[in-house]
Amino acid sequence: MSSKPAVLGKDLVENFKKAFFKDEKNILAQNVCTKIDPFELSLSRKQIEETQHVFNTKIDAEGKPLTNQKRSGRCWLFAALNVIRLPIIKHFNLEDFELSQGYLFFWDKIERCNFFLNNIVETARRNEPVDGRLTSFLLYDPTCDGGQWDMIVNLINKYGLMPKKNFPESFSCEMSDRMNQILKSKLREFARAIRELIQKGGSDGDVQSLIEEQMTHVYRIVGICLGIPSESFTWNYYDKNKAFHSVGPITPKEFYDVHIKPLYNIDDKVCLVTDPRATNEYGKVYTVDCLGNVVGGRRCIYNNQPVELLLDVTAKSIKDGEAVWFGCEVGKRNYAKAGILDLKVHNFPLLLGVDIQTSMSKGDRLLYGESAMTHAMVFTAVHVDEKDQVDRLRVENSWGEERGDKGYLLMTAEWFKEFTFEVVVDKKHISKEVLEVFNQEPIVLPAWDPMGTLAC
Q1: Which of 5, 46, 278, 324 is the most buried (most CB within 10 A)?
Q2: 75 in active site
Q3: Where is the active site (predicted)?
């Protein structure tokens, strides 16, 4: 027996209206909220006054200059390179330094498009209908800017790194939407051609030849928009003492293997996630169907652990002098102007009569589409109390210096527990039991699972 629909009748709506105007606080809130941003009105003056961007445990030195991804979704790349540059700055005695975000962006675009086309082949071989949920999900966004940690590992291990001076930003690096529109249009067109060829009984060789032809167009589009990195380069620089140095000619892969890997070996870093949904046990490893960026590369692997463990290993890494890449949902309980991530920074019940964003558990927010990882940044400091418990953390963002403490944010430990989803630390900070979880065969989550959301 079907339930009766809850119709909004005239009498019921009239009751809503009477209840609204009966409370004069609603009228005052309406008067100001129709003129001012409701999130600004909900800010807690007391909480802002009590927030200080001061920390008692920091890494030796933070990187300069503060980076800015501008109007692109490359936070995961910026955050990774902001971590990696720190030991380079120290080792080479530099005043400031940036690795080329555009270089990895170029190769990610090329690889990501090829990965998508091969996913189309895979789903066609599985007899997935073009209008089914999986294929429709893939076609909705064939290539985006966002990414995950294991995608970074794939790019660096295959293509290496280079200084930003040797491959600077382009218009489409900083404002990627137009290039992405072009690529998405062609990729959907290419997907149709692939599926039609497979439906006609095309061989694996025929399909591979078609993808190679399609990728020549992708390479040309990306090369026109971003430029094409040189196969080798020479890095000239001055150290803090104004002494001149030169490295090269050298390939980007050699530059990473010879000069960076001894300082920061990306293969020694492990990514831990926290997914408290009842369906996903802690102490298990997960992956997401059709997620990745390099065909034949490393899968995106999620070692699921309690959030308290993620906070603990983050503090251990900071105390050991190494910054931490992490992924979170940056838009919740965020006072962007002051750079404050704090559960108490907004008082929504005072303005609206109801709370939002934290009304459900973290697991339920994931389950009901209210929460997911959206952004990657870097931890550079923590503040511990007299009981050696983490109270707050310092965050290096990649949105320029205009917001927060010259671009740095303050995150409370309670905010970390609610809205942080993954951290990357050196495996030396991880127990043997947790490391052994990586040896499990991953449980495959569907392509649309929130844990597959890409930081951008």
Answers
A1: 324
A2: yes
A3: 75, 375, 397
